[in-house]
Every structure is written in structure tokens, then in C-alpha cells.
Amino acid sequence: MASKYGFIDKNGKVVIEPQFDIESEWDKVYRSRSGAFSEGLVLVKKDGKWGFIDKNGKMVIELQFDEAGDFFEGFACVEKDGKWGFIDKSGKVVIEPQFDRVRQVFNFSEGLAQVEKDYYSADNLPRADDYNWGYIDKNGKVVIEPQFNYVSAFSEGLALVKKDGKWGFIDKNGKMVIEPQFDNAREFSEGFAGVEKDRKWGFIDKSGKMVIEPQFDEVSDFSEGLAQVNKGGEFQVLSQVIEGGKWGFIDKSGKVLIEPQFDHARDFSEGFAQVKKDGKYGFIDKSGKVVIEPQFRDAEPFSEGFARVAIEVEGGVGDVEITIQGRRITTFSFACLDDDYVKDFKKAIKFTNGLDEEEFLGRIFESIIAEDFDDLKSEIDMDKIEKNCPNLYEMLDDGYAGEGGLSEWLGGFFSPFPEPILFMEPGHGISITVDGETKVDKQLLGEFLNINDEGIELGEIENEEDLDSENSVLVQKAKEFCNAQEETLGLDPENTTVYKCNNGMMLIESWPNQPELVKMLKNKNQITISGEVEGYVNYYFSAEKFDLNKLTFVRNSNYDEWIGTDIVGNYFCYDKKIIEEYDFDQHNFESIRHYGTGGSGQSLEFYLEG
């Protein structure tokens, strides 16, 4: 059974029937939409587009935006074609889309809005260094120059900013009035701001004085005289949120008025607060009394007499979450020993000091990175290697010889392309849930895909009528996908190979050694050094009657686009569309995104020298 958003009044009565799409958990947390009526309108989503309805459920600003935020001070931020601007309540664009990012909740506050420029680098990838947040006025004029790593909305005359890893507060002239000193912080509300020091949260006043000592595991802003606090939760490094513990409420003296007892809670609004127990949301009043029993899959704050709630409905569109987990190998931590040297390498194992094949390969590669073979030579019998393994001896003994430099020298021994891709290696798993129901439970990815290693090169098909019925359907499906994503992914059917999977298909464009790419087993000549970590990638989307055969895995030859954050190909798609992805990858983004640029020698040289 799927769920849709509708709206209830304060008696719990449904006043706008459930009909709108539910955002994914990623969408809700990281897009930061309020989900509440704001200035008489509320943001809703249908069929992938956003618009606004009024309290009668009438669509007053048509569904047309790729992304959007709520109305504040008469303006709402909207995104079209990758840039953000602002509209008024008639839907008219009043500040042209020109910004890379904006804050979607409280975008305009006290006359100023938070915007960012130059978030993307020249190759259209997010920068991993300092972000550039500043403020504009309602004419679109920049009034505080972009200079901060992070900014918040102005609240009570001050705005929270992050600089050099610490948090402080500025005034509307951009002057720092409370110096950056906190590990984390929240905006001012009702004269108080939550601040974190040494993993505990307390509250300061506008002079910067600590008025409620740090003692809680998480806090929220004060709202209607009360603030949420968490006791017993643990900070999760990967997701950057508190998980576990219980939530309650304190007053401005720090006294606990409603004991921590809820699995989740949100701020008081119009006398009510949403609380979660046993997986369902309801509402309490300020005495802690439950006034609307927990019954909803999700709920948002009361605003202007209405609260948005998620109600299960028959049919409709369901939430799909796909998690791919397993070993993560940093892009630069592997290469393949050239075939000419494999024979010598295998013979040389017995002349090492007890190293196995993988350890020996790793030691060779580590020695290259260190530009020093002396330690390795102390672990092997160089005399026997010289006599029995002349090719390998040349590599170990000559060092970086020749006028071509490191790149040319390496090119003689290694193929630094990721041809034996690791995402089908045993250990990677895939899990799929649809509306909370498990469809696939940590199945080995290689088993889930079970790719047929006889790929069909689309450009080499002379007559589709010669194909059997199964391959004919596969080719037609692949060509339709290429046409749908040709511009976005740069897919060219004339240079694309398709492979049939157990579930869906895989498309690969212009890759060398394609049969090697789809092998399930680990390439025995692969060199692996550091970089193995546990990780996972979450994908979220909605689908009607979710079908495993509509999955597509795309490995594209454009290395500049391959930024190393996917386990499964460059792109993971459903029904010809790229799925929204949220990745808790901890690798060095700036390094990984350059992998492969400029050809094989330059690629590996980038890591060895830089």
C-alpha cells in the first residue's frame, strides 16, 4: 500500500484529500522543505514537478519547477535548468534564476536571502573546497559578499555563519558580532541559540553568554517557549545526524517540562507538536498530553490551522529505496599489471619473503607511490628474480628510467584503467524496499545482476531481424534508453554495448576490454592498496508498480563525469530516468573526480605526484 500527502485540521479531520507525492527521506532531510502552509500557500509535488496550492486545495501556481522552496516575505525560491531564482505569489519570476544554490526554508528573512555562486567548478562538478555563501536583497542585489562556508537566515537581527570550521554570528552589515567558536550552532529564536561544544548542546543569548550549559545530545530552536532536547542519542558520522535516544522539551530556564520519551519530535507550532511513537506520528499539547493519536506515517507542523500528514491510500505511487552496500575501493588504489609482466610476477612469488600474490602486487604499487623500491627489495631475492624473472627485474631495478618521465615509465608495466570494475565483486550487496516492504535483502550484487558477458554492440547490428526475440527486446530497450538520455549522459547508440542482466540491463559506452568489465570474479592481476571501507549508496524514487526489469546500470566512457561516488556504474536509472542519489562516500572528492582525465599515463601520474 502506497502513501500520499493530504492535509488535516486541528481536529484531525482530513480537509484536503491525499493526492500529492511523498518526497523521499533524502529529499525531506537534505532539501529542507517545511511541508507547511506559508503565507496561505503550500508547496506540493506531482509527477516530478513542484507547484503551490491554497487552503481549498486549488492549484494556484502550476506544477512546473524542478525544485522549489516555501514562501517567505512574499517570495519563494524556484529552480529551473539547474539555476535558482525567486517568484512572487502570482508565480511571476521577480529575481531571474542565476544562483547555484539557495536556502529553501526561510529563504528571505528580515529582507535578505541566502544564495551561493560558484558552487560548481569549470567541469560542472561541485567544489569540495570553500563554498561561497552570501546574501541578496529583494531586488536581487548582493549586499553581503559571498565568503562563508555556510550561512543561515537572519533571525532577530543575527545570522549564523561558518568560517574556518567554526560557527559564529553576523549582523546585517556582515559584521561578526559573536566570533566563530562553536563546533555547531543553530539560529537565534526567542532570544536563544543552540550551540554545540565537545559533542554536547546548550544555549547562548545574544551577547554570546552561555545561559543553559551544554548537556544535551541534540536540541532544536525555542518555539512558543519550549525547545526539543534529546538524551541518549548518538551522533552518526556518515549521516551527520543524531540517531536513537529519546526526545522531550525544556523551558528557557533549562527545566525539563516534558520528559524525553518520544522517538522523534518537532517544534511546537500553534500550540501543538508532532511526536513519533512506535513508527507513527501524532500531536501533543504543551502539557505533554496526546491530542491527536499517533496514526500517520509522517506529519508536518500546524501552520495557519492546517497540518500536512501522510496517509496510506490504495494504489498510487510508492516510495522505493535502493541501498547498495559493500567494500569501497578508492579509485586510485588499483591498476592492472600489464600482461607481459604477469608470467614473471607469478614466478617471482616464491622468491619473496612469504608474500602472497595480492600482498606482492600491493607492495609493488606502494613502492611506486613512495618512489622507493628499497624496502621491497629487502623482502625479495633480487638475484633469483634477475635470473628467473627478467621483465620484473627490469621494473624493480631500473627505477624511473628514461626521458619520458614517470608516465612513460609506468605505461610499460601498468594499465591504470579501471577495466576490471569492482562493483560486481563478491561482497557488494543490494537491498530494495518498496513502501517499507523488503523486495531484495542484501543480495550479492553479482548474483542480482548476473550479467551475460556476451555484450551486443548496438552500432554493429546489421539487421535486427536476425536477433532472437529476447535480444531484440533488449536492443530496442537499450536504444530507447540511449535516445532518452543521449544529451544528459552523452550516450551514442553507435558506440554503446548492452548487456542483459537478471534484473534490468547494463549499458557501456566506448570502453576498452568490455568482456573484462563484466566478469564476476576478481581480476587476479589487480593491484589493490589502501581504500577498502564499508560504505553504501542510497537511491530514492517513486514508482507505480515497481518493476526490477526497469533498472538500468550505465557505465559511461566520459571519465570527467565519473566522480567515483557510485558503486554501480556511473549512473543508476529506473524507467529511463536517472535516480536521485545520496551517497555517504568519504573519499577525497577533489582527487577522485579527476581520475582518468588526459589518458592513462596522466591519470596515474596525477595520483603519484599530486
What does this structure look like?
It is a single chain. The protein is an alpha+beta fold and 610 residues long. The chain is globular. The chain has a six-stranded mixed sheet with strand order 40-41-42-45-46-47, with helices on one face. Strands 10, 11, 12, 13 and 14 form a five-stranded antiparallel sheet that branches. It has a five-stranded antiparallel sheet with strand order 39-38-35-44-48. Among the domains are: 339-412, no CATH class; 429-520 and 536-604, no CATH class. The longest helix is centred in the C-terminal third of the chain and has 21 residues, at 469-489.
Count of alpha/pi helices: 12
Would you tell me the overall average pLDDT?
Answer: 76
Structural class: alpha+beta
Largest beta-sheet characterization: 6 strands, mixed
Classify the beta-strand content into a percent band. Answer: 35-45%
Outline the low-pLDDT stretches: 25-32, 122-126, 327-335, 416-426, 511-533, 558-567, 583-610
Helix content: 10-25%
| Global morphology | globular
What strand order characterises the main sheet? 40-41-42-45-46-47
Distance between the termini: 52 Å
Number of strands: 48
Radius of gyration: 28 Å
